[in-house]
Amino acid sequence: MATAERETKLYECEVKRRRVKSGGGYEPFWKTKTVADALMDADTEFRCKDCYGEVKLFKTHKAGGPAPHAEHKSRQDSEYCPSGMYFRKAADGREPRPSAHPVH
Ligand SMILES: [Zn+2]
């Protein structure tokens, strides 16, 4: 795998977890972890840690394939996320911005 290609993949994401709230009950919070850990822990809700947009997780299916990673579901997110593949390819000096449809 070329270095440039590796750098445009997301190897970390945020996963939604629950924690006990002071005063009782639970509250959701987002935790950053590696995509490999998220897959192993069977987390179900993910988002990009940089733009909070939806991401899809990819497992490694064969030896020598790309490591487990995440990709933006929305191309628009990828075009304006600082970690986005399209953002990094863009040569127009654009400013990053959060997802238009962030996951809460
Ligand atoms: Zn992003």
The structural class is alpha+beta
Query: What's the SSE pattern?
Result: HEEHEEEHH
Small molecules held by this entry: zinc ion
Q: Number of helical segments?
A: 4
What is the molecular shape? flat
What's the structural domain tally? 1
Which percent range describes the beta-strand content? 25-35%
Helix fraction by DSSP (H/I, runs of at least 4)? 10-25%
Q: In total, how many beta strands?
A: 5
Radius of gyration of CA atoms, rounded to a whole number: 15 Å
Give the termini separation.
Answer: 34 Å
Biggest sheet architecture: 3 strands, antiparallel
Uncertain segments:
1-6
- Strand order, largest beta sheet: 2-1-3
Write up this protein.
It is a single chain. The chain has helices at residues 3-7, 35-40, 75-80, 85-89; strands spanning 12-20, 26-34, 46-47, 55-58, 69-72. With 104 residues, it is α+β, with helices and mostly antiparallel strands. The protein has one domain (3-89). Strands 2-1-3 form a three-stranded antiparallel beta sheet. It has a two-stranded antiparallel sheet with strand order 4-5. The longest helix is centred in the middle third of the chain and has 6 residues, at 35-40. The radius of gyration is 15 Å and the shape is flat. The protein starts with a helix and ends in a 15-residue tail after the last helix. Mean pLDDT is 90; it is low at 1-6. The structure holds zinc ion (ZN). The site of zinc ion has 9 residues, from loops. Zinc ion (ZN) binds next to loops.
